[in-house]
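Lecture 7, part B: from sequences to assemblies.

Below are the input chains for today's worked example.
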Amino acid sequence: MKALHTSKKPQKCQQILMDMQGIILDSSDTIFAVERHRPLTEWSHFLASILPTLNNLKLDSPEIYFPNIDTLGESLSGLYDCSFISAEWEEGKLVLVWNILDLTKSESLLKRRQQKSQDRIIEEQLALPKKNLAPPKAARN
Amino acid sequence: MISKKVILTGSFGVGKTSLFNQFIHQQFSDKYLTTIGVKVNKKDLDIDGQSVSLLLWDIAGEVAQDKVPTSYFLGASGIIYVVDLYRPITFFNMKADVEYLRKTLPDATILVVGNKKDLVTKAEVEEMVRSLDTKIDFTTSAKTGENVEALFLELGKRLIANH
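Predicted structure of the full complex, as structure tokens:
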């Protein structure tokens, strides 16, 4: 679905309004532009995998929050926080509001820190003697 | 076409992303690169004439599963819980983690996978598996590709059967 978005814009937040099938009704287009009236699930594996769950959202349901999503869709990698709520649209129809926060600028710093910490821990763990590291059955009950 | 959300989870550095990349792209890198958050990708399988689309979530490793944001588990039908056969300390939380996952997703199919089998001998694997009271369903090597396709095919079969 190549025509769905254009290159990223400098803004940090975007709001997309879609129906329960993931068809775009409207968007602020502040991070990336999307074509209206097309299913976002064709482009976003992330959305495709959670849409059945989002379909259970009611008007009074709490927001569902997904931190640190690496790739929102085809050719749109980065790091994003996403949240979803349901809202009432024309003629009382329930729709989904997808809020996106672009954290891509922080990604390399987060990665560097986490990599350093995990590399150190793995190195220490590999230096441990291999035998009897798994706790014995009786001790774990 | 049946679509199923599948999660790869476990401690950091056990090879979740390597299994993900080997299965989807048939690629492997020896260099360990940490994962931040979640990477999502898709692979379609044909299993005995039935098409199934696996929507795979490769989740950043946590030492215990109760540290993973609970929203990540929403709607998951399959879980691949990975431990590192070369780093037995990654087995420590296995029992508690698998119990937590079963409680969080009672209807999900959970497969426990010992990865990096290329770094240990067959005898060492057998000894480790015997010493544990949580069953390891598959032993894999993301590096050589051994058992990787078989793991996902088995999961796909079980997901179709439970559909």
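Note for the exam: Chain B has a mean pLDDT of 94. Keep this in mind when comparing with the next example.
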